[in-house]
Amino acid sequence: MQEISTKPYLLRALYEWCTDNGFTPHIAVRVDAATRVPRQFVRNDEIVLNISFEATSQLQMGNEWIEFSARFSGKSHKIEVQVTNVLAIYARENGQGMAFPVEATAQVAADSAGVSRAIERDSELSEASEQESPAASQEEVASAEDDASKSSGRSHLKVIK
What share of the chain in percent tops pLDDT 90? Predict the structure, then answer.
C-alpha cells in the first residue's frame, strides 16, 4: 500500500495555527499547466495566495488539491492548486511557517529562492498595509516581486521531506 504524503496534513495544520493566532495564512505556489490562477499575477512561474477566511470563498484543502474562489482586481476567480505544487505556507505577519520540496521538477533551487522572495515581498507589504488595512489584497501580494528582490531578510521556514 502506498504511503499518503504528510504535506496536505501539515498544510491544514499550519492554516489552522495561523487562523487560531489571528495571522493571515499565505501559500507560495509553483505554477504549471494544471494550476488554475489568474496568469497576470504569476511571476517567474510562481504566485503567492492569501488563503485567509476573509480573502477566500469555499476554501477546500484536500489531499490532492487546494480549491477556492478569490477576487483579483475586483473579479472573482476559481483557484485550483495541486498540493504537490505548494512551495510554502506561512503567516504574512511574521513569516513563520514551513517550506516544502516540490516533487518532479528541475527548478528546486529556483523555487527555494522564490519562496524567500515571496516571504520578503509579503513582509514589506504587511508593514506598508498595516496602517491602511490588516490584510493585503491578492494583487498587491502578486505584484510586488520586483521590490522584494532588493531585500535581504531571512525567513523562518523549515524544509521538510
Answer: 60
